[in-house]
User: Which sequence fits this backbone?
């Protein structure tokens, strides 16, 4: 059996300085606080043996999954290169594996060197192959039976039963099955099959819908054809071509009837050209109709009648406008008088204004004289202003009062005169406005008369007839229009029979059009019904089969993988059953647990394995187990598998990282007893921060042991690993 | 026996064996994601061909 003798670590994970650890004794204890490099030392051994296999999702170890800043970094942040040298001793002698990785160099920066027992050195792929040959243990078996990861115990203790099954798979080395099933499940194979099936169903629904719609159209067209006198037997190409021939003849006859010639029209070569033929026929009919002499005359007469109607309407409108204007003028004269009367009234008002002006002047002169008289009296000396010169009575402010009385009297007279003059001014303005309006009305009436004259002249010119004032143009026009109407009636009777010929041709083309639609729909329906026999349809059927086969293969393969996974789990558990049971009972030392039985079934939900832990009575244990008991199960399985592999296992060592999680003191003592027993066949390395377990190991292990204390870790110097004597 | 051999021993059909080998090769090269990608690229090609055909068929309507 191959045993680890020594490991030399430099630049790997927490290690910066070169550090050596020796494993020369049956038990090696690595102890110290958290984050002191104990786990990294065990990781270094694993990495040296398996390289990149122990990194990423395939490793089955959660902390090693992740990219970018979450990548599990091999090379120490303060080192350029990681190098681990592992010295192993087997029956064939000692050999060395050295694995190195240079930072950020990718594949080129990775190397491995193996020195074989005979001293031969191998590098690269050859070295990898030699390592595989010497180890004879896959990475999965290594994690199941050799290296008990800290995470394994932790997950088993705290996770739900489905997650515990995941840990069990890992403990049993079944991660590859799980990962492959996971990869298959993640693919879009089933999803795409559903999508394709959906798309095809939609397509088929569209086909059915198209057939239904076309069938409805066809039935509708058949009904119309029947209404037009076509029997079911006549709904074919021959009938259509026959109709085309007869329509050409009808067009020729019609042209002759009109005294015209028709251009050469040929029947369609097959039913598909019907549309252009019908268009040609319609165009020719329109042309012949437009060029027909009767129609031309009819059209000219209609045009003349329309022009007469328009002139008559113009005249009547203008006549009404003139009459309305004349009435307005008469009404105004009746109200305000004729122009001469208005003029006289205005002149009289002007004369009266002048008379008032004169009177105002006269009163003003009189007022001036009185003022002067009073002034003379005021200047007479002596004059007793208090004595009235007329009555001799005493009057205070006599002259002043006199002046005031006169002023008031004159002002009243002037005021009255001004009032009269204002009234006369208003009258005068009113007369002037009436005069202006009258002039405008007279002018408007003249304008309307001129317009009416123009309309009459227009009619006279149109009819080539002189119209005098006594003629009523409207009556004359009505007589002329009546003459045209009777002419039109004669022509209309003549063209009515010709029109029926055109309608007959039109009926024929309608029939042809219907037959064409029917043939087109029949053809389209036939095409759709034949889709199933096209190459494209056959190809898509083949693709559908390919997809179904792929799905079937994938499902079948998944079944086989699940079955192999289940079988392997059952086999491994069966082989290790008694050892696992023994270790579990020994660690827990609980009289209630007399037996641990592990069953494995297929998990219907996930498709993976599902593990059931039962006691001696078939009672499920997980719901009633403490965390310490759960840890005991995980340790029992790991140790049981390791022991079962026993002497036949090529590797004679086991690595245990923090195995005492949640165990009580008694359980730890029992674990140490088991390790003491097991150390007879395997070298055991235990890494722990648990001081109680350290002490139990120091005291309880009866074999020679090597003890390393990990301490004083710093980013630039790494851990200090001191060997204790 | 490895998982690869154990599963292979259970497979009777040639095409299924080829698919298993393809899946194993993908897994060894790029793990879970590579299996997904291999199967997806297989189905994507089929899907593409299928959609093209369906388009042609739709044009016939």
Assistant:
């Amino acid at each position: 059996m191959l045993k680890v003798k020594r490991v030399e670590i430099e630049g790997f994970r927490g290690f910066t300085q070169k550090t050596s650890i020796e494993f020369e004794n049956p038990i090696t204890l690595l102890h110290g606080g958290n984050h002191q490099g104990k786990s990294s030392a065990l990781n270094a051994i694993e990495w040296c043996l398996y390289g990149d296999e122990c990194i990423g999702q395939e490793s089955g170890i959660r902390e090693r999954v992740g990219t970018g800043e979450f990548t599990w970094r091999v090379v120490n942040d303060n080192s350029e290169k990681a190098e681990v040298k592992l010295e192993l001793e087997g029956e064939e002698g000692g050999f060395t594996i050295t694995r190195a990785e240079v930072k950020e160099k990718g594949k080129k920066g990775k190397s491995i060197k193996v020195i074989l027992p005979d001293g031969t050195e191998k590098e690269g792929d050859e070295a990898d192959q030699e390592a595989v040959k010497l180890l004879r243990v896959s990475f999965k078996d290594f994690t199941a039976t050799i290296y008990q990861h800290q995470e394994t115990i932790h997950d088993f203790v705290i996770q739900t039963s489905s997650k515990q099954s995941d840990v069990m798979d890992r403990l049993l080395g079944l991660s590859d099955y799980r990962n492959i099933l996971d990869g298959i499940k993640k693919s879009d194979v089933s999803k795409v099959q559903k999508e394709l099936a959906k798309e095809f169903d939609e397509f088929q629904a569209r086909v059915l819908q198209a057939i239904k719609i076309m069938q409805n159209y066809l039935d509708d067209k058949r009904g119309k054809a029947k209404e037009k006198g076509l029997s079911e037997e006549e709904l074919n190409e021959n009938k259509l071509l026959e109709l085309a021939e007869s329509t050409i003849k009808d067009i020729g006859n019609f042209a002759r009837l009109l005294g015209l010639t028709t251009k050469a029209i040929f029947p369609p070569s097959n039913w598909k050209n019907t549309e252009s033929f019908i268009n040609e026929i319609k165009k020719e009919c329109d042309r012949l109709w437009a060029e027909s002499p009767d129609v031309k005359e009819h059209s000219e007469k209609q045009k003349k009648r329309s022009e007469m109607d328009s002139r008559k309407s113009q005249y009547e409108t203008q006549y009404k406008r003139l009459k309305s204007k004349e009435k307005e003028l008469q009404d105004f004269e009746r109200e305000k008088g004729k122009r001469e009367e208005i003029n006289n009234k205005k002149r009289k008002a002007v004369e009266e204004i002048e008379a008032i002006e004169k009177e105002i002047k006269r009163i003003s002169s009189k007022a001036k004289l009185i003022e002067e008289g009073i002034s003379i009296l005021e200047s007479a000396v002596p004059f007793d202003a208090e004595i009235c010169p007329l009555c001799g009575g005493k009057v205070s402010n006599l002259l002043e009062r006199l002046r005031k009385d006169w002023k008031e009297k004159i002002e009243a007279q002037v005021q009255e005169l001004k009032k009269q003059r204002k009234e006369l001014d208003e009258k005068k303005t009113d007369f002037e406005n009436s005069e202006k309006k009258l002039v405008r009305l007279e002018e408007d009436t003249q304008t309307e008369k001129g317009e009416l004259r123009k309309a009459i002249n227009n009619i006279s010119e149109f009819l080539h007839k002189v119209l005098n004032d006594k003629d009523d143009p409207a009556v004359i026009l009505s007589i002329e229009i009546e003459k045209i109407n009777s002419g039109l009636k004669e022509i209309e009777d003549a063209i009515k029979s010709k029109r029926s010929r055109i309608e007959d041709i039109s009926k024929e083309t309608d029939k042809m059009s219907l037959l064409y639609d029917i043939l087109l729909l029949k053809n389209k329906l036939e095409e759709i019904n034949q889709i199933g026999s096209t190459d494209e349809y056959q190809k898509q059927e083949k693709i559908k089969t390919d997809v179904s086969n792929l799905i079937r293969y994938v499902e079948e393969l998944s079944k086989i993988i699940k079955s192999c996974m289940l079988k392997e789990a059952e086999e491994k558990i069966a082989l290790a059953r008694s050892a696992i049971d023994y270790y579990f009972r020994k660690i827990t030392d609980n009289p209630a647990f007399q037996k641990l039985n592990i069953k494995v079934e297929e998990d219907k939900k996930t498709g993976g394995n599902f593990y059931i832990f039962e006691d001696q009575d078939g009672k499920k244990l997980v719901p009633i187990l403490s965390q310490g008991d759960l840890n005991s199960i995980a340790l029992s399985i790991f140790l049981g598998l390791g022991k079962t592999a026993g002497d036949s296992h090529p590797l004679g060592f086991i690595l245990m990282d923090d195995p005492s999680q949640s165990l009580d003191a008694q359980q730890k003592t029992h674990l140490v007893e088991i390790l003491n027993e097991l150390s007879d066949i395997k070298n055991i390395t235990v890494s722990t921060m648990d001081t109680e377990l350290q002490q139990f190991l120091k005291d309880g292990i009866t074999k020679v042991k090597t003890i390393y204390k990990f301490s004083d870790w710093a980013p630039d110097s790494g851990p200090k690993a001191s060997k204790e004597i | 026996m490895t998982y690869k051999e154990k599963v292979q021993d259970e497979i009777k059909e040639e095409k299924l064996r080829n698919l298993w080998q393809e899946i194993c090769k993908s897994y060894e090269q790029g793990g879970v994601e590579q299996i997904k990608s291999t199967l997806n690229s297989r189905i994507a090609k089929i899907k593409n061909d299928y959609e093209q055909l369906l388009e042609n068929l739709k044009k016939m309507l």
